[in-house]
Amino acid sequence: MLFNSLTFIVFFAVVLILHNLPVSWRTKKVQLLIASYLFYAAWNPPFVLLLWLSTVVDWSVAKRLYQTDNVAGRRLLLAISLGVNLGVLAFFKYGQFLLENFISAAAMLGINYKAPDWNIILPVGISFYTFQTLSYTLDIYLRRSKPSKSLLDFSLFVTFFPQLVAGPIVRPTQLLPQFATPRRTTQKALNWGLLLITLGLFQKIVVADGLLAPVSDKVFGASALLNPVDAWLGTLAFAGQIFADFSGYTTIAIGVACALGFSLPDNFRYPYAAIGFSDFWKRWHISLSSWLRDYLYIPLGGNRKGAARTRINLMLTMLLGGLWHGASWTFVAWGALHGSFLVAERWLRARFGGAPLWQTFSGQLMLGLLTFALVNIAWVFFRAESFEGAGQLLQAMLLFATDGQKILSSVYMLQAACTVSLLVTYHWFMRERRLEDLVAKASPLALGNAWGVALFLIVITQGGSDAFIYFQF
Fold first, then answer.
1. Alpha-carbon 446 to chain mean position
2. Phi/psi at 405 (5° precision)
3. Separation of alpha carbons 470 and 243, rounded Å
4. What's its top-level EC category (predicted)?
5. Catalytic residue among 19, 325, 338, 427
6. Which of 82, 184, 303, 406 has its CA 20 to 30 Å from the CA of residue 278?
7. Residues 409-418: b if buried by 16+ CB within 10 A, e if exposed
8. Which long-range contacts (CB under 8 A, 24 or more apart) does 33-41 make?
9. How far apart are CA 251 and CA 244, in angstroms?
10. CA 469, CA 245: separation in Å to the nearest integer?
11. How far apart are CA 250 and CA 326, in angstroms?
């Protein structure tokens, strides 16, 4: 069930009505849990069993973990949780990838192995809810929190439908306490939630699908070498598309939760105005980057064990972050590039970070635009279907080949250039601001007009039923 569909609008309206009936808080939570299962079952009903498996295993393991002081016993219990969750994730998401690489390795050794077809459907959102349930078990193992006393609350934490399939990845301390006390819709929360839903739909339908996806798809679908202008515009279009698509989803998720009386954390803070890659990862997919920091980078030693170990930890974290996004070596290359950028940034900051130039606005702007350019180079590997396709685009973008074909019409070129320019400008304008403050300062007339225009553009834009990009992760 897509957020950008009439089916979801009807579903959400029914959930909203039921949630505000004069019934007990426990009944409302049961209604939300059933709604969450129905929401997920709309894609493929049998995969609800995976949610149940994750819920039962982590609920049971966490209770035992909290009661056990024996080190070996605690490690065994943690291994059970990790084994089940990561095992299911590995089977469904990485089985085909592992099989293909095994066949390639066997062929290199002269072994002609033919495997049966791997006809396994990837459960939508499996990477998101796997990391979310793992954070519950890991927090209890690390003595950061106590297990929930209510199986109903924990089940709802695992399956809460607004952020179930594409985040944000919510920590137990962020969401579980909200289920402890009654939550209801207020007029203020409903208005803000509906505004966020409209903004998210505008990002997804109008910006991502309507303005940028056609340009991005044409460039990344080309088989021939392109000229540098087309290559750059197609990559910039994808940069805008993936932000508007993913940010659109999480904005809708936050808005839906808000309308029901719940609060979800921000997942984006204007990342295309980032100054450096440390700043970028504090602004892009914040729930994943903070998860990787707290449960992987810091346990590996973080930056506490010397410069060499810090570089290794950064690379390992970003390599696994790339692999989290997809079972392909191109995603690993994307993660490796970001890891390399982070390592290089630390080295450069240590030697030149105190130079007066970098403290000025012009210096900060130059660094920000350089960051954005390098982010786009990395996006090539994220979007390309193969290294060959990525290599062709990069040849043109880096001016190693300038005689490629021109495939973008003037309309597409103008569409991509204007949309991305406006998006990046907006990010810089909002870099140190909050949307809530901007809305609070706007006059009711201006806000109403902007809201009306956004709704009108959503309605008239074609292609609004496309799935969200991050559903495949």
1. 31
2. -75, 155
3. 10
4. transferase
5. 325
6. 82
7. eeebbebbbe
8. 33/152, 33/155, 33/156, 33/159, 35/11, 35/161, 36/156, 36/159, 36/160, 36/161, 36/164, 37/159, 38/11, 39/1, 39/11, 39/161, 39/164, 40/124, 40/125, 40/159, 40/161, 40/164, 40/165
9. 10
10. 7
11. 19
From the centroid of its chain, how far is CA 405? 33
What are the C-alpha distances in Å from 134 to residues 75, 126, 128, 130?
14, 12, 10, 6
Tokens for 335? 């993660």
Q: Which two tokens stand for residue 290?
A: 């903070």
Place of tokens 């939550």: 183
Backbone φ, ψ for residue 467 (5° rounding): -70, 155
Helix (H, G, I), strand (E, B) or coil at 226: strand
| End-to-end Cα spacing for the chain | 16
List of residues 6+ apart from 191 with CB closer than 8 A = none
Q: How many CA atoms lie within 13 A of 183 on its CB side?
A: 18
Distance CA 9, CA 66 (A): 41
Q: How does DSSP classify residue 45?
A: G
Please report how many Cα atoms fall inside a 13 Å half-sphere around the Cα of residue 203, on the Cβ side.
Answer: 23
The C-alpha atoms of residue 201 and residue 454 are separated, in whole angstroms, by 9
Three-state DSSP state, 300: coil
Q: Is 19 among the catalytic positions?
A: no
DSSP E strand boundaries for 73-118: none
Bond from prior residue into 147 cis (ω within 30 degrees of 0): no
The CA distance from 319 to 329, in Å, is 10
**Rounded distance, CA 52 to CA 88, Å?**
12
Taking the mean position of all CA atoms in its chain, how far away is CA 429? 23
In this structure, which amino acid lies at residue 276?
Answer: G
Place of tokens 């970003």: 318
The CA-CA-CA angle for residues 260, 137, 1, to 5°, reads: 40
